[in-house]
Amino acid sequence: MTEPTQLLEQYAALLTRYHKTLDLLSDAGLADLPRHLDDALGYAQIIEDRAGPTPVIVDVGSGAGLPGIVIAAALPNATVHLVERRRRRTAFLELATSALGLSNAHVHGGDVQELDGVCADVITAQAVADLATLVQLTRHLHRDPCWVVSRRGDEQREALTDILAAAGLPPTSTAAEDAAAQAEVLVRALEGRGSLVAVRLPGGSACLPSA
Length: 211
Known about the structure:
The chain is of the alpha/beta class. The chain has a single domain (4-207), classed as Rossmann fold (3-Layer(aba) Sandwich). 39% of the residues lie in helices and 22% in strands. It has helices at 4-18, 27-31, 33-51, 68-74, 87-99, 131-138, 160-166, 174-182; strands at residues 56-60, 79-84, 105-109, 120-125, 142-152, 184-189, 195-201. A 7-stranded mixed beta sheet has the order 3-2-1-4-5-7-6, sandwiched between helices. The termini are far apart.
């Protein structure tokens, strides 16, 4: 089995080769690629710490594969669903997962709201939306419990009540109070700018076990 470090080197080479042809990264983004890879490894660390080594992960708006491909490389026993609407980036994700031999990664071209048949232990996103919107878009995929992990800028702050409301829990309901008691919020600063924020939520009804 190829070591994660080797996989990331191969992935970086693919990004370098195709970033202009497929409009994957800006020149500045490519120059800052080592930091982006480190940030993506931060996602993998939080996921393994909180959800274990074998979770089902849905990466929303996977783009060029940050963080989804890095997570799949770092957590070979996890199942990672890469969801991307843009065709050229979907083509790159398919090329990269094949070239890297990431059999645990599955590429979905389209909107995450159309994804079904998946019950996720973890939802990740890099720069798709605020956490509350991300929860709302993916609620139908949440296992019980489900971690939602995203990168936030230094200036961004979100209230837990807004996130719970996006999960369909009115802020004054007993269910929301119970959910708030169950919820866990984890914030880890990144070496560059911003933080990774992880929120543990009770599951969506579609992924709850049958009675």
